[in-house]
Amino acid sequence: MDHRVVxxxxxxxxxxxxxxxxxxxxxxxxxxxxxxxxxxxAKPLIPKSAPTPTSEAPAAPAASALxxxxxxxxxxxxxxxxxxxxxxxxxxxxxxxxTGEVREVSEAGMVYVSMDEFPTPxxxxxxxxxxxxxxxxxxxxxxxxxxxxITSLETFPPMPNVYLHLMDAKLVEN
Length: 174
Hints:
Elements: H1 3-33, H2 68-74, H3 81-91, E1 95-105, E2 110-114, E3 123-126, H4 129-133, E4 140-155, E5 159-171
């Protein structure tokens, strides 16, 4: 085999590996940073208004029938980040209740949950430190929260992965 062919193959593999490492680094940074910079302003499901002293506190919103699989199946149809942003804005404020597997819990109470057979976290939400401290990696949990935003991360090999950020999340008794 000609040395130029071998050199070209090595350079191609090196470029692919470098791209993969850069993408992995970017995804890790987003996950660890909690994606602190919002892509858009989320719309609350229920307008925040203080209850009157004589009225009872409003009931918690009912969870929609929307499943994680519904969102995950739609993501490959969103070819650009702009389409992902539009879809995210469409679903922002939707209350969901799902069950997933705890993958990580930060000391500050941020919970990262996988939603399918893959161990990669797909949903994140904040709990108070006491509730989060009771969670263990690998534990199945049912949670309710409001979709704040949806992002789509490209991985190597190229395939979109949906990632959801929930707000006002709480654990639900099974």
